[in-house]
Amino acid sequence: MKVLLINGSPKKAGCTFTALNEVAKSLNEEGIETEIFQVGAKPIAGCIGCGSCRKTGKCVFNDVVNECMPKAKEADAIIVGSPVHYASASGAITSFMDRLFYSSGGALQYKLGAVVASARRAGTTATLDQLTKHFTISNMPVISSCYWNMVHGNTPEEVCKDLEGMQIMKTLGKNMAWMLKCIEAGKKAGVQMPVREDKIFTNFIR
Question: GO molecular function, one example (predicted)?
Fold first, then answer.
């Protein structure tokens, strides 16, 4: 079993990485393989709704989104981390997630998902709410912890001093490992995955 952790911060080893790395260590202790994927600092275009991905299976903008897609499809679970920028998720991870999920063609459904937010002070709950919606519209069970998945600090060193935040990250890893093992046990016991129905679209303006 493998969990893909997506670092939505432009800083490779900053506060968001520190939080994700704590989750990864907790997963590793439970025998779960992990990979932290760095979104990076290069500009990421937003989704333009062109529909090209429906034909080609990948986004028309050939950047880190297409690089990440095979990893996301292979993983059993996805955790996305973001710093707080102006009381919401970073612009880069917002564009990244929009395009990743839009171009996935439903391939990410029923994988486990979780979001981690990192802030100096505030905006974490809005960030968690914003990014979690990518999972809850995609048939992806969302994993929680002993508190909302957030850490506080302006440097990695300060984040490490947020003992409650670090405990939240550790617990998140344990909870996700437990759910992954439960799903695996269910498969071995013959529990079938939900059958996906054809989507019904209802427009409210006639």
Answer: oxidoreductase activity
Domain for residue 105, yes or no? yes
Q: What is the DSSP letter of 57?
A: S
Q: What is the pLDDT of residues 17-32, one digit of tens each?
A: 999 999 999 999 999 9
Look at the chain and report how many structural domains it folds into: 1
DSSP structure class, residue 192: P
pTM confidence score: 0.95
Distance between alpha carbon 176 and the CA centroid of its chain, in Å? 12
* 175-186 residues labelled b (16+ CB within 10 A) or e (exposed): bbbebbeebeee
Query: Where do the H-state alpha helices sit in 119-162?
Result: 124-136, 156-161
As beta bridge partners, residue 85 has: 88
CA-closest candidate to residue 6, choices 147, 108, 86: 108
Share of the chain above pLDDT 70, in %: 100
- Owning domain of residue 77: 2-189
Q: What is the pLDDT of residues 65-106, one digit of tens each?
A: 999 999 999 999 999 999 999 999 999 999 999 999 999 989
pLDDT in the model for residue 145: 98
Q: By the 8 A CB rule, do 100 and 70 touch?
A: no
Distance (Å) of CA 155 to CA 27, 30, 151: 24, 28, 11
206 inside domain: no
Does some domain include residue 123?
yes
